Amino acid sequence: MIMGGTQSEHKLINADGRTRYDGRKFDELRPLSIQAGVLKRADGSAYVEWGSNKVLAAVYGPREVHPRHMQNSARAIVQARYNMAAFSVGERKRPGPDRRSVEISKIISEAFTSVVFVEQFPRTTVDVYMEVLQADAGTRCAGLTAASVALADAGIPMRDLLPSVASGKVEGVVVCDLNKDEDTCGEADVPCAILPRTGEFLLLQMDGHLTYDELMQAMEYNRRACKIINEVQKEALRKKYSIITLENNVMKEEKPAEGRPEDRDQIGRPPESRLEPAQQGGA
Amino acid sequence: MDEDEKEIMEDNGGKAGEPPAPRDRGKGPCPPLPTPVGPKDEVWRGRGTQDGSCEKPAQPGPEGTGGGPTEGERPKGDLPEGQEPERGGEPGQMPEGGNPQPYREGRYEQSRRDGGGGGRGRDRRDGGYERRDGGRQERREPGRPPDVDRQLVLPGDDLGTHVRGGFGTYKDGESVYAACLGIRSTRDGFVSVIPLSGKYIPKRGDFVVGKVAEMTPSAWVIDLNSPYVAPLPGSETPWDAQFGEASKYMTVGDTVLVEIRDINEIGRVSVTMMGPNLRKLEGGQTIDVDATKVPRLIGRGGSMIGLLKRLTRCHIIVGQNGRIWLDGTVEDVTIALAAIKKIERDAHKLGLTDAVAAFIEGMRKELDEKRAKKEAGDDAREKNAVLQDRAERLEVQEEE
User: Fold this and answer.
1) Which of B17, B84, B234, B363 has its CA 20 to 30 A from that of B270?
2) Residue A204's beta-bridge partner residues?
3) What are A's interface residues with B at a Cβ cutoff of 8 A?
4) Which fold does the domain A32-242 belong to in CATH?
5) Is the predicted ipTM greater than 0.95, yes or no?
């Protein structure tokens, strides 16, 4: 599972002290691509590929609440369901909700409850489904990022698109967007969901031990990464809807989708070929 | 078939005393073209009469013609069809300032006077329409290049500081931000966002096509293609249904044309069937489209729906909730369904009315050819049968 065979000891941080084993800088994200509106039956949907993560999100609603007693006559409820496919991880995952996915569903639904204008749709529910097809650490963040695009795709009024990312500590260094190896062998993991405009934290968890300064550093990484993720989210929605504004105007044709938009997600850096080994290493 | 069509067109031309329908069709669909004021007036007059002519023949006995599925009469006969273009038409007309009066002389005015609280209804209707279509009207200002400011906004996008926020926006501190994904529109000093997707939320005064979802002894529960359902008590129907008799009049699955009377702050909707043209829709079938596409389906001043009705020869009723009821011959309905799907799919395209007209004509031609071929085949088979029969008879005679 861990790395190519060249290194004998499992070093997650390279000897140069500036890069990680997959070639990324400490504050660098994995390649991220989002596609909006991939499902026909859902009111809104999105598909996210983030490193080796593959997550599908679907949104329904606002719609009637069943069972009736769960409805709130003052506002809409947001019901999120995070689920990992049996084949999403190396060892077969026992299907069905477990402690972990119930927790994730809960925090995601709470994050969205404060971003969606729930007061506009009393007595209804907005259902958010996230299916993790392939997991490689940071799936709750990938799910949340996808679900947020799906919500916008469904035309649900909300304050902002909600990006999410996790930073953590690996071999004593705070790094952004952990992959599977860093997550399992690292010391800490801090997933966040941050409103890009106001910088509000709508989700903040921590697993492991960090000093105060390290936590601040991780949150700062997350804050900066969320801005970038937000741009990718926006671009995904624009790509789906821009024909509406551009087509027929002969202004310009949207550039055909390049399979993997590597240049979008770097933190202030141009695309570089050394991202490639990262993918191979992860897969 | 072609003759019918010709007839209708001639009707239009004749009654309007105007350039005939084809011209209208050519002109109508591309409203965003920057037209100077003069020509625009012409366009509008043309369109008004075009719709009017659709309406006029209905006056003698609209319900009567509605019942009989005669092909030629079809597009003219249906009552509430008119209602939609009207709704689209009125608000479109007014701000234009071009030619307000000729448009809706007919039944609409009348019905408004007839129906109690008609005036109220009209205001509401205008409001309801503008909410969804505000931006498009705005784009039609003379001399303005079309669609240049058709800007896509996403939730959280800043819409400016010294503006008032309209539909689909929220204010935070100094600035107004977009709440929905949609097209930005500025109108009357308000910045609003016209959503591109989303569920239908009932609005007072909307006409919607509902379906009976549940029944109680004295009331029906109407599904509105929306997160909310609405009870329809017997007192809001034209029937004098006694307790326990509800099923005599409507059962689960029936389609009704109702008006949203009110929706309160907790989303309780009340609907009514008391009003001109509101009724149970007998026969026909329904199709659901995205409610945000309804203004497009109706078209500016009802141009699109008028064209659909004329070319497909169906009764069509478009509810603001995105549910469409249509009735006609199998072939006509097939064409209409395909056309509606096309409109929904291509709602964002310019010049859609033209495209739809071409689409319908193409499809009709195709179907005609197919049928002609089939009939020719049938004829040949019949002829063969007759010949064979004759031959057999001859043989028998010979044997005798």
Assistant:
1) B84
2) A192
3) 43-44, 61-64, 73-74, 117, 120-124, 152-161, 195-198, 234, 237-238, 241-245, 247-249
4) Ribosomal Protein S5; domain 2 (3.30.230)
5) no
